[in-house]
Design a protein that fits this description.
Layout (H helix, E strand, L loop, with lengths): L15 H9 E4 L9 E6 L15 E7 L28 E2 L7 E6 L1 H5 L3 H7 L1 E7 L15 E3 L11 E4 L3 E2 L4 E5 L17 E11 L5 E4 L16 E2 L6 E5 L1 H5 L5 E12 L14 E5 L2
Parallel strand pairs: 9-16
Antiparallel strand pairs: 1-2, 2-5, 3-6, 4-5, 6-7, 8-10, 10-14, 11-12, 11-15, 13-14, 15-16
Length: 289
């Protein structure tokens, strides 16, 4: 028996303490794709600790969440015997005079920087503080901001009839292709019954050793209706259909391959003409851990 996985979508609520942090620290873009470069901004004039405001910089980030990086990582917070007095030069921030006299930013690709999947960044956020290269300590007063936390919200989806969830597809994590049947404008595809919606799906992967592209397709379009692995499950409450899978295992990537793009189209189990499939054929980008 196939397992039906249902999703409920929630609006994220910010508590007042988080709003205080947001005044001093924020991310740009506001709802980023964390598999791409983003900027962490800090306005030192709005931080509560005054030691950094009285320092001309340059400044560095010191971060521990979603994960604190170890000594073997190139982005470790500090180096040497007294790390707090010797921030890593790779964590040096840039001053942005266009946004104010005390505004600094650090640019990173979060999934690459922290080495964790996008889902972990969205669930945990990014916690850090700002300090000069020598943060004092060891008997002297610390020079730093208070701890800052930025809650990271995923980008809003512009959803068509067929869309993916979550917004960022990763090789080794569950993803769901959703077909919103009640919104389909193709008359012959409306009001489908359980067992009548199947997903033609194709994935392009890249071999990280050779750079060559390879295509995986569980079934060619005309034979999709006879492949039980491509049957979409109907939610009796919303009348929407879904197919959930882990890309790497579903398509059978080789160890050196990673997903690049997924293309799909919904069709009826019994297909006779183009009236028996959706008109949209979306393509979704695939990332990796």
């Amino acid at each position: 028996m196939r397992t039906v996985i249902k999703f409920t979508f929630f609006l994220s609520l910010l508590i007042s303490a988080q709003n205080i942090f947001a005044q001093a620290a924020w991310v740009d873009p506001e709802e980023p794709d964390v598999t791409k470069p983003v900027r962490l901004y800090v306005d030192l004039s709005k931080t509560t600790n005054t030691s950094c405001k009285e320092n001309e910089g340059p400044f560095y980030i010191w971060t521990w969440k979603p994960v604190e990086l170890g000594d073997d990582n190139p982005y470790v917070n500090g180096t040497g015997d007294k790390k707090w007095k010797n921030s890593n030069d790779l964590l040096k921030m840039t001053k942005d005079d266009s946004k104010g006299d005390f505004v600094w930013y650090y640019e990173m690709t979060p999934t690459v920087f922290y080495g964790v999947p996008a889902s972990e960044i969205y669930s945990k956020g990014i916690s850090f503080l700002v300090k000069p290269k020598d943060g004092g300590g060891y008997g002297s007063p610390d020079i730093k901001t208070e701890d800052l936390t930025i809650n990271i919200s995923p980008p809003k989806l512009v959803r068509g009839v067929t869309y993916q969830f979550p917004s960022v597809i990763l090789d080794n994590e569950l993803t769901t292709i959703v077909y919103n049947n009640p919104t389909d404008t193709v008359l012959t595809m409306q009001n489908l019954e359980e067992g009548d919606a199947y997903l033609w799906i194709k994935c392009t992967a890249v071999d990280t050793l050779t750079g060559n592209l390879v295509t995986y397709q569980p079934s060619v379009f005309l034979k999709v209706g006879s492949n039980p692995n491509l049957e979409m499950i109907k939610d009796p409450i919303t009348n929407m259909f879904s197919l959930t899978f882990v890309p790497r295992t579903f398509f059978g990537f080789k160890p050196t391959e990673r997903g690049k793009e997924i293309e799909c189209k919904v069709r009826r189990k019994v297909w006779k003409t183009i009236a028996d499939n959706t008109t949209d054929q979306p393509k979704f980008k695939v990332g990796c851990k």
